Structure prediction request, 1374 residues.
Amino acid sequence: MRNVLAIGAHPDDIELGCGATLLAHTAAGDRVTMLVLTGGEQGPGTANRHTEQRSAAATLGASLRWGGLVDCTLTPDAATVKLIESFIEESQADLVYVHAPDDSHQDHRAAAAAALSAGRRLSRVLHYQSPSTLSFNPTVFVDITAHLTGKLVALKAHASQVELSAMVEPDAVVASARHWGAQARIGYAEAFAPTRMVLDLAPAPGRRTRPRSSAGRHDSEAVAALLPR
Amino acid sequence: MRNVLAIGAHPDDIELGCGATLLAHTAAGDRVTMLVLTGGEQGPGTANRHTEQRSAAATLGASLRWGGLVDCTLTPDAATVKLIESFIEESQADLVYVHAPDDSHQDHRAAAAAALSAGRRLSRVLHYQSPSTLSFNPTVFVDITAHLTGKLVALKAHASQVELSAMVEPDAVVASARHWGAQARIGYAEAFAPTRMVLDLAPAPGRRTRPRSSAGRHDSEAVAALLPR
Amino acid sequence: MRNVLAIGAHPDDIELGCGATLLAHTAAGDRVTMLVLTGGEQGPGTANRHTEQRSAAATLGASLRWGGLVDCTLTPDAATVKLIESFIEESQADLVYVHAPDDSHQDHRAAAAAALSAGRRLSRVLHYQSPSTLSFNPTVFVDITAHLTGKLVALKAHASQVELSAMVEPDAVVASARHWGAQARIGYAEAFAPTRMVLDLAPAPGRRTRPRSSAGRHDSEAVAALLPR
Amino acid sequence: MRNVLAIGAHPDDIELGCGATLLAHTAAGDRVTMLVLTGGEQGPGTANRHTEQRSAAATLGASLRWGGLVDCTLTPDAATVKLIESFIEESQADLVYVHAPDDSHQDHRAAAAAALSAGRRLSRVLHYQSPSTLSFNPTVFVDITAHLTGKLVALKAHASQVELSAMVEPDAVVASARHWGAQARIGYAEAFAPTRMVLDLAPAPGRRTRPRSSAGRHDSEAVAALLPR
Amino acid sequence: MRNVLAIGAHPDDIELGCGATLLAHTAAGDRVTMLVLTGGEQGPGTANRHTEQRSAAATLGASLRWGGLVDCTLTPDAATVKLIESFIEESQADLVYVHAPDDSHQDHRAAAAAALSAGRRLSRVLHYQSPSTLSFNPTVFVDITAHLTGKLVALKAHASQVELSAMVEPDAVVASARHWGAQARIGYAEAFAPTRMVLDLAPAPGRRTRPRSSAGRHDSEAVAALLPR
Amino acid sequence: MRNVLAIGAHPDDIELGCGATLLAHTAAGDRVTMLVLTGGEQGPGTANRHTEQRSAAATLGASLRWGGLVDCTLTPDAATVKLIESFIEESQADLVYVHAPDDSHQDHRAAAAAALSAGRRLSRVLHYQSPSTLSFNPTVFVDITAHLTGKLVALKAHASQVELSAMVEPDAVVASARHWGAQARIGYAEAFAPTRMVLDLAPAPGRRTRPRSSAGRHDSEAVAALLPR
Prediction:
């Protein structure tokens, strides 16, 4: 079982970027937390975006946390880094999803940079695409054929944005899923650019995370014995 | 259980690039096949490199196949592509490891290009690093802390090359494993650059690979119902 | 009026990559030539692919030329370069469309490389995406909202491939058009990566292509007079 | 006719980056607006830089707008984004020129980032090179052979900088124009790296910018009829 | 003799990134200055990091300067740029070493950006790797086989960090040195990504830095005489 | 003193790419060898290109070697690699200059690839730009202000190409030198993209190239003693 933390700058960012993947995680028994850094109060419409976001998180089977920061003012400073660190710790996340770093929205860039700082000790950080993302070269994909409708349901919960924001276009979401699916040689996919992604091939026996521990030193001797003199 | 196919141009290429990862696959119960495209007859020394390679494959718990091509003459032409296709089919591989495309050895470049052609319908193609690899930006890693000594044992089987080839330096192999391990925030790692890598979060229910099948059409209707009008 | 030359390795490559853009060119009064380098005789099916290709070219309002080379054996050698040069000259092309250079099909790579050689003196060379293209970062787009159905009609002419090739998926073609359209902030788009693209802002008065001509020298004096001493 | 908006952080930035291209736009009958974000008050010299800039804009046939921000303090925050948005709206720009994002001057980076944010719905954003630009891989060019002297005249209007700034070297401006011209296979060129550039091949009949409009739905049916079942 | 300025955000950054290279500079008779921008007061432990840093600088034979900025709050603003400019001037640096720009630590990114600004007129700016650096493609290397132990001695002076910081792992430092050494085809290396690096092949006779000086104009005539008419 | 080997596919390639740098090497007392792989017999004109090349080499103070291969048919196969290896050995080169790998001329691509293979054990391989080079991001520069006229003199020796080849434009050569000079913050420069470049800061005492020698093992003990337990 994995502890997954998905981070977005505004309500609906996570759903757009990796909503179906989160559904696949919940279906696999993983524990999923969504961290929405701001209330999205600068977005169009007068709807209660907290309510929309709570409803969307529920459809994804995810816990919801709020960062309490202010829309359009995110910066990747020490306070934001510390804030995200606290949620990484709380969720015991070993896999983080966050915006791609090269994005034309300043909040998205800041969220990506701060998450990379906060997650500097994690072995799995994957970046998702937003409609405002600029360069994006995904190489890691998740098959979402079974979860595409679930993603659209979650997105629909953000009715105010679907209705009013020119950047939220559900038909483009479906098209991109098929586009990336073709790239991944499957049906529909969400696409990710990894900063780093350690694969789990199997529960490794006796894995140690710091090689200079006493166990590590034994290895050193075995290794040295195998090197040519 | 996965069917894994590791492809190398010469005896010892696969061990250097992903030997420990193959051990992790066997440990996880995956079926591993090694395809060595040439006999490495241009390498230094007079040892029987087929014997060395057989011995190395045995230590990795892998099946060994030979491509029967001639060292230093590999080209990514239709014949080489077809040859690799036949081994992908025979092994029913769903995950391929092969050289990185940007490599100063012409055989490595050719092996990478031909494998990309032959594996054009596969969802998982990962590139490993060789001592002659040029640009290499890995983002996917496998924890090999438990398998580093196993990798060195496999490498030792290629005694002629360890002894004579200036490009095979076991101490550099260990150093690189630790270098990439630090990048991956673990102990020791092998590093991979993915052409594409579909993650398995869980056995997806009712996965289909071609969305235009009859099952796919049902989805289309569900999807259409969820799009704004 | 432009003279446009679209180059593809096999029948259907051009339609998949830039079929709607060619329709936009014909609609704009440009003269469009399609150069299909091989007969695609290794593709699936027994249909007459020359007939299919002729029919597709007709729906696009384009002249059709055949390179007469053999499917799956293309190389970017001097003969292929000369062949393409002859068609650039015949068509007086000032804009060339061709495969993207990084593609897993050896013929596509060869077609791109040879076209770059043959077009080394041209100011406009744009690369289109194929289903087998690997890295692709398009920055130039053509709005094909009005020509998407036309593209599908042209594609349909290649019935044997649509029916039998796993790489030709019309629904993915539509999805990609919408995906790139969203990237380009329009409806549907074909996407291109330029090697170089000189824009036409206006018919420049007295344009010269070689600045060292006599006209160029006058400029030199005017320029020198404007430089600080 | 196009509405062109050129954005620069300081007086003389626009002239250095795309002055001749703006002349080509005016010559083509396009409407050109220059937005200079700061007064350049930290530059060398005591000259009135507003006067110099007004004079330069006049030689280019462009309208001049001032952002009123402070030299060396630009940040790509919400206020700067809104400011640029207002000028995009005022000028009804459909083509924006702005600094390249990777630049060693903090104001240039900020201007590029804020313009990308403000122009997130535009289909044409091109980045020009400054003397302080770092990585820059232009693929789009404009032939400025006929406008090189005009560019130098505009630059000369910034006499204080030409005289005193080590980064403003007219002879290097001419050399770069010839360098990029050779890259573009023409005489002299200004070079651009596009974030996205939708080409105009012809006035597309019935173009729509949002495909989910009623017109878009008709298309959907036509498209569906052309897809294989 | 060179004047070398190495810039780091925190105590120990410079030693980790280029400590052995600085030793090679001192050994070669170059004058080395280390500029540590903050006191590293947010790092783990209660040790006096100023004392540790002074001791480390002494082992490297380098002068030590402090930027006096606050740990975790660096920004590449005008004040930081001016601060670094003053140290470039004081040290008369013609070669600057600084963090790589793409780093997950906000202070490292800020130090790199500000140094690039401050060093905009310098011909030699090289970026070193930190444990938190993200993408890094070094092409320039220094042979540190003779200085590896010296680097470890300098690192040991930062006892509080070696003891307590999870990012400071001396065995990984050694491994990376061997990894990059193998890339550089030598024993052990420190690796650098250059923003720009002018090589010294020989003391050039009569070198001028501004070609439009009177000496430059003579050249112009000689050059013009050699161009075809 | 260095042994420098400059490799070009055709007569005039080396002069265009790094002629002035070779002059700087000779001026510094280095030994310079030029290896011209083909006779350039497909170039325009009827002049004796061997004679022209001999004359050009003389003006650069360089030894001239011929590869004896056929113009427009270069491939980076084992024979070409071996050929270049023999010249690396003969010249005892420790620094190689060769074409950039991404070039639209097939011979240039082949020369770069074969030289990278042949020079796989060298620590210094720099790529120069040709008029047909495609992507090129130089980071290493040589100040050629004192050698620009010398470069033009060498180029003039290739009178047939200057006269007849559309790709050889001396005024563009001068412009590019000034363009790269501005990038390098000097007067005029030749620009290089390094595959790898080990800097010489000083004659390192007791340098060893293979760390597993007996000398290397002593180091290992010293290093181990400095690592935390």
Summary: The two ends of chain A are 44 Å apart (CA to CA). The helical segments of chain A are 13-27, 49-60, 78-91, 106-118, 148-156, 159-164, 170-183, 214-226.
